Amino acid sequence: MPAAISTARLEARISTDLNSMLKRAAELQGRTMTDFVIAAVQAAAQRAIDHRATRRRSPATRPHRTCAESRLASSRCLLGPGPRSARSEPAA
To answer: Cβ contacts of residue 53 below 8 Å, gap of 6+?
Structure first.
């Protein structure tokens, strides 16, 4: 005899516009609206968990960079070190 699958119920109040959109999307994929919503919610939950796990694994000591700082660092990496200034030359 197969083991019983444990289930839970989820209910949500949504606008009629969103309901129509979900029905349309489900039809386009050949799924029931329930199957479509379950798959979409499961995928979104997994992405949120994966994103959080990835952020936790990064070193805590590394400061968060802004987009501009990241682009600047990438540019420096690609272009290599710039010309040496007179200050950086050893005194003769």
So the answer is: none
